[in-house]
From TrEMBL:
Organism: Atractosteus spatula (Alligator gar)
Catalytic activity: a 1,2-diacyl-sn-glycero-3-phosphate(in) = a 1,2-diacyl-sn-glycero-3-phosphate(out)
PANTHER family: TP53-REGULATED INHIBITOR OF APOPTOSIS 1
Keyword entries, A-Z: Disulfide bond
One Gene Ontology CC term in the entry: cytosol
Matches recorded under Pfam families: UPF0203 (PF05254)
Protein name: TRIA1 inhibitor
GO terms of biological process kind: phospholipid translocation
PROSITE patterns attached to this UniProt entry: CHCH
GO molecular function: phosphatidic acid transfer activity
Family assignment from sequence similarity: Belongs to the TRIAP1/MDM35 family.
Record-linked InterPro entries: MDM35_apoptosis
Length: 61
């Protein structure tokens, strides 16, 4: 699935892949010691926020 921010799709795919791997290989097997994908998520989140603000601004103009 593509990202809500046009320029963030690749970051979303990378995060989704990391999260799904961690969830299946660690979390579901009882290892809840942490999420190794946190930094990827933060990069994706920042991208969405920046792009979201850009597109919100453009729609107001």
């Amino acid at each position: 699935m593509n990202s809500v921010g046009e320029g963030c799709t690749e970051l979303k795919r990378e995060y989704d892949q990391c999260f799904n791997r961690w969830f299946a290989d660690k979390f579901l097997k009882g290892d809840r010691s942490g999420d190794p994908c946190t930094e990827m998520f933060k990069k994706y989140q920042t991208c969405v926020q920046v792009n979201g603000n850009y597109y919100s601004f453009r729609s107001m103009v």
